[in-house]
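Page 42, continued from yesterday. The earlier attempt failed because a stray header line got pasted into the input along with the sequence. Redoing it now with the clean sequence only.
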Amino acid sequence: MKELIKGVSGKLLRVSPRSHWIMVTVRTSAGRAGFGEASLHFSENAVVAAVASLGSHLTGLGVAEALRRISSLEPGDLITTSARCALDQALHDLEAQRLEYPICRLLEREPARRLEVYANINRRTLDRTPRGFAQSARDAVAAGFSALKIAPFDDLTPDHDVDAASPLLEAGFARMAAVRDAMGPERRLLVDCHWRLSPGMIEPVADACAALGVFWLETPYPEDDDRRPDIAQARRACNARDVLLAGAELKIGRPAFEAMIAAGCYDVLMPDMKYVGGYSQFMAVAGAAEQAGVAISPHNPTGPICHAHSVQASAAITPFLILEMQFDETAAFKAIVEGALPMPRAGFLDVSEKPGLGLRLIDVSMAAFETTA
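This time it went through. Structure tokens are written below.
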């Protein structure tokens, strides 16, 4: 009897005061399950509804047919795309399970077996003083990470004028300096701006990055189409100080990334497996980046399912640089899954060679975190 999609479910989990995750399960008539993640900040309920809507059109289809249907959808808004990506992940999981391959071997004959990772310590840092950031940095170093990322510019917006921005920038620089001091000079420090800067702020920020040996500056400005010249100028300012510029975490599909590449925006592109449009689009973006000599570092600060899919995707691409992962934000990261959760040792992790994702969600464990808002 042919194996068919039996049902699709999306569960919203509140895993910390600052974070919600959306976990997606696709079950088949053979009793198998594939897993995806659709976490999207501020739009959680809408994404869960989109998962249900898209999933209803897959019920009764074979896995391969469902995967073709999801992959063929036109790009939509971020909410619909997040749902689509999670379903694409789950279907790839099911297909790779059937073939008894890890997902990365569906994409590349000889994938990487080991990847470098960096710790995003921002969300676990509830004490936003320099001292609080420094303690998070020490904890991450003690856990073996050799690269750390922070988002130090709290309360800053692009609308601040020079006088209003100055103390907020200085507060950010103090956090950066405290982290650099705590982590030592030999490890890589990455700084995320979360689109909080204006062009008038880039010079002092780039100077601070140079003085502290920052490896990259991330998303300085909003990434609307008309901002590409500003972003390209920010890249030049950073590169003149031996600092890379990274971004594009919310972009959907190869054309959007190609436009950023053509405008000279970034040294490092950060496609997110929850938003890029699925595995096929991730691979297409990586191909475009390789042709342009641009590096890929997937955006990956959320839950364990996206993390595991990001590992599988990263293992299959040539321009891979380093992979983000959340550090110690919530016990849910390990509690809600069982199987081959890729965890780092000395700043690197091994790529799972288990069939499919090599990981499954635990319903009873997720129940402790389930919410509706």
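Notes: The first strand starts at residue 5 and ends at 16.
Reminder to self: strip header lines before submitting.
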